[in-house]
Amino acid sequence: RARRAHxxxxxxxxxxxTRKVNPRQVQHDxxxxxxxxxxxxxxxxxxxxxxxxxxxxxxxxxxxDALDAVQEAMLGVLRLSAHQVASIDDPHAYLAGAVRLRAxxxx
Length: 107
Known about the structure:
mainly alpha, single chain
């Protein structure tokens, strides 16, 4: 199967540990990322990506495919309307579900 080109989102360094972050801060970063705030996007990626990549890797059994699934899920947030993004109550659950669906589609 052909490999897809990766987007320009940097992969988190291996060994990063994610800290517990206030869900309101994650929600704020999600809305700010949607509005074009690059720093919010980086914070959200640094916080959420390691866990999401691990979850996607369990489905795809391939790190590169898992990374693609996470990147596609994050980009999917940008395709939503501002109202839809603001109405996401649990950003962790939303992103985990989006990653799971994209990982399954990659298979």
